[in-house]
Amino acid sequence: MDRQRSCLTCLCFGVLAFNSSLAIYRSWGDAGSVGLVLLADATLLLLFLCLREFERGVGRGRDAMIKAAVWALTTLLTAMFASRVAPLMPPLVGALVWAMAVATATGGLWVFFLNP
Questions:
Q1: pTM of the predicted model as reported, rounded to 2 decimal places
Q2: Which of 21, 39, 64, 109 has an alpha carbon within 20 to 30 A of 50's alpha carbon?
Q3: What is the pLDDT of residues 59-101, one digit of tens each?
Q4: Contact at 8 Å (CB) between 20 and 41?
Q5: What SS3 class is residue 83?
Q6: Number of folded domains in the chain?
Q7: Which domain of life does the protein's organism represent (predicted)?
Q8: Alpha carbon distance 82, 96 (integer Å)
Q9: Residue 106 and residue 85: Cα distance in Å, rounded?
C-alpha cells in the first residue's frame, strides 16, 4: 500500500509540475501571475509535507503546531486565489468571494482549534 501511495504522490506532483510550467509559460510577461503560480506551488508542497508529518507523528506533542501550520497554509492559499478571482467578478460577487474565503478560514480555525 505504501508503494502505491508513493507512486500516486509522484504522479500527482508530476501533474502539478506540468500544469504549473504551462501556467508560467502562458503568463510569462505578467510577473504577478508567475509569482502566484510559484508561491501556490511552494505552499502546496509545504502543506503536503505538514500533512505527511502529521500522519507520521500523531501523538508526539507537535500536533498543535502542525495544525497551526496547516491552517496558515490553507488560509494563505485561499486568500491568494480569492485575491485573483474577486477583481474579475462584478463587485457584489467579488465581495461574496471574499466572504466565502473569510468563512472558510474561520471555519478551519474553529475546526482545528476551537472545536471541543
A1: 0.81
A2: 21
A3: 667 778 888 999 999 999 999 999 999 999 999 999 999 999 9
A4: yes
A5: helix
A6: 1
A7: Eukaryota
A8: 10
A9: 19
